[in-house]
Automatic annotation (TrEMBL):
InterPro entries: AspA/AstE_fam (IPR050178), Aspartoacylase (IPR016708), AstE_AspA_cat (IPR055438), Aste_AspA_hybrid_dom (IPR007036). CDD domains: M14_ASPA. Belongs to the AspA/AstE family. Aspartoacylase subfamily. GO terms for cellular component: apical plasma membrane; cytoplasm. It comes from Pagothenia borchgrevinki (Bald rockcod). GO terms for molecular function: hydrolase activity; metal ion binding. Transmembrane segments: none annotated. This is N-acyl-aromatic-L-amino acid amidohydrolase. The keyword Membrane applies. The keyword Metal-binding applies. Its EC number is 3.5.1.114. Its cofactor is Zn(2+). Residues 232-313 form the AstE/AspA barrel-sandwich hybrid domain.
């Protein structure tokens, strides 16, 4: 790819901001509630101003994703909603006794999708909290989605006091499982550390500012602003590591080592302390290469058998982009439809 290449992409007229996919991750819950309240306070003058700026306008749909889990302040009621958006799940049969989150996933797919179709919303931003010391992260399934990567670059520029990183999960569109995969573009905005069931003002504020900057970027893009390309750092997930466990009972026998705790995105070398057993023994990292840990000691991942995840850091070159003209948009829609039919 040439550094000065200019890529033209379709407008983003419809954006969804989702909170409460996990009912006890409260920054997103309270932020979406606040955005819904603000939406009701739009004045007549503001409506007229938006009509005058037709090209910049973006329809923002605020969604409280898992209402039942939110009421109970639990991650989920029956099963993890953010694992229910694979093509197989969304297109499979549903019985009368299906878990609540499966039913809710189908509702959200009808509301925001259908996944993989031209009717899907243009961008999904799904809001999450982590107990890990990760700062603000955008998590996406593609490392060549120029929309998501440019939003990431914009947030880094506009929020210099907040550590912001881009995490890439190399999963196909068919197997992508989270709510953000329903949109044409999408990412999870993950911010921590924050205990589940708690809202911390500084974490909430970082999420609010991040969402506002994301929406500002979309408006700038839709109005014809050219965004210059360049290099960005991407953390590509390599593998998960489970806790040491008793062979018979499968209960954990060690915790994250104190020298590793809270050191998300600090390079972990072979031989570095990884776990400390409950009898006091240090267990080293036995990997063959240095990697970057993240989601270290995430509370919600104990049940998933994940003590931490490991990633490689890469530099990715992203092109300059601008919004397509109407003629270019028509050609893109025809191409997108043909690809989906295949």
């Amino acid at each position: 790819m040439e550094v000065d290449e200019l890529v033209c992409l379709p407008r983003l007229p419809r954006v969804a901001v989702c909170g409460g996919t996990h009912g006890n991750e409260l920054s997103g819950v309270y932020l979406v509630r606040e955005l819904l309240k603000m939406e009701k306070k739009v004045t007549k003058e503001e409506e007229e101003e938006e009509e005058e700026e037709e090209d910049e306008r973006v329809s923002v749909l605020m969604v409280l994703s898992n209402p039942r889990a939110m009421l109970q302040c639990r991650r989920y009621v029956d099963t993890d909603l953010n694992r229910c958006f694979t093509r197989a799940t969304l297109n499979g049969p549903v019985s009368d006794v299906a878990p609540y989150e499966i039913t809710r996933a189908l509702e959200l797919n009808r509301m925001l999708g259908p996944k993989g179709s031209p009717a899907a919303v243009d961008l999904v931003c799904d809001l999450h909290n982590t107990t890990a010391n990760m700062g603000l992260c955008l998590i996406a399934y593609s490392d060549c989605d120029w929309i998501c990567l440019h939003i990431f670059k914009h947030l880094q520029r506009e929020m210099p006091d907040v550590p912001i990183r881009f995490i890439h999960f190399d999963v196909s569109s068919k197997e992508s499982y989270s709510l953000d995969s329903v949109g044409k573009h999408g990412f999870a905005m993950e911010i921590g550390p924050q205990p589940h069931g708690v809202v911390r003002s500084n974490v909430y504020t970082a999420m609010r500012v991040g969402v506002q900057n994301m929406l500002d970027w979309v408006r700038f893009f839709n109005s014809g602003t050219i965004f210059e390309g360049g290099f960005v750092e991407v953390f590509s997930m390599v593998k998960h590591i489970d806790y040491p466990r008793d062979r018979e009972t499968r209960t954990i026998t060690a915790a994250i080592h104190p020298q590793l705790q809270d050191r998300d995105f600090c390079l972990l070398h072979p031989g570095d302390p990884l776990f400390q057993t409950f009898s006091g023994e240090t267990l080293p990292y036995k990997g063959k290469e240095p990697l970057y840990p993240f989601f270290i000691n995430e509370c919600a991942y104990y049940e998933k058998g994940i003590a931490l995840s490991l990633a490689r850091k890469r530099r990715v070159m992203i092109p300059s982009i601008r919004v397509q003209t109407e003629h270019e948009q028509e050609s893109y829609v025809q191409e997108f439809t043909s690809e989906e039919e295949e």
